Amino acid sequence: MFGLFKKKVSKEKVNQFCDWFCQNSERIIKSVSQAGNDNSFMMQVLDEVENELAKIYRDGYKGNIEFEYGFNKDLQKWDLFLYHMNNKYLIEATSLIATTLEAKVKDTWLIHIGE
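and the corresponding structure tokens:
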């Protein structure tokens, strides 16, 4: 009975986000790489990533969306950190995003989940 109103993470929305992320991966990387010359471009792309994540998160979470990304010099790959803030809905959502996205961007990105 208590699980009756529990929101389920939309696999379709997760797939749409992952496809969007793949299509915009180079643009995301470029925005960080050129941040010293064009900070407004970096902020614009950061907002776009947040807006795309919100399409998934807002189905079951109303708080601040927390994530970050940057270059990992040690591994020569980009890191994407998704945070779930110990929220049951976000734990499921970030796990599904990570699993789906890792298979698509493993040559360039490392996907991490944190609290």
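(Above: one complete record from the training split.) The CA atoms of residues 95 and 113 lie 7 Å apart.
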